[in-house]
Amino acid sequence: MKQVLIAGVSGAIGSALASQLLATDPERTVLGLCRNPAALREQIPYSRLRLAQWDAQTSSVEELGTSLAEMLGPDGELDTVIYTAGLLHDSEIFPEKRIEELEAGAMARSFAVNCTGFGTVMRAAMPHLRHRRFKRIAAISAKVGSIEDNRFGGWYAYRCSKAALNMLVRNLSVELPRRCRPVSCVAVHPGTTESGLSEPFQQSLASLEVRKPGETAANLLRVIGSLEEGSNGRFYSWDGSELPW
Fold it and tell me: Is the pTM of this model over 0.90?
């Protein structure tokens, strides 16, 4: 993993992944996409971190393609793509407990960040994935996006958008081996992580194991680092076990 693209690099998990990747290999370069590159530059002061402004909801494929070409060069190659952008709540939306709370705007925003953003990143990254070395593609999903595992309901926008992300991973796992083999494209559940995303739910999470971002990043990198061609098209948990779609 010498050239790694992280979309959503300013988030708790994304920044922890970037820090660990840069710290463990002096020859590794991380390309980070986020809304505020200047703020992250102060937090992760590695010269091998190249940053570009990007917003999952508003940035176009053309803008992203230009940014990647500028960071990599027109013929630059990527070894790994990790999509960490995610939206569960903000000042305008909050996880729904019942169907009467469902709002079309919240659904659209959740799909834009949690699913569509990954698709546009992959579309822009395709020219840089056609080399003959093994490629790893990982979308950070969520166990609550599993249709088979859903026993509690609620969280309509988040669950549905993560389920859609999982389908996008499966679609790509069919197409990518035809166009840029060898490759493995997977979804990964990171486990519950101490972050802004989980902060409002600390009381309900008291009975769960909540990990620091650094620990989550280490777990994810173990899973991603162990991927093989035979891993393609699967949904993994942070400990390497397989989850049902």
Answer: yes
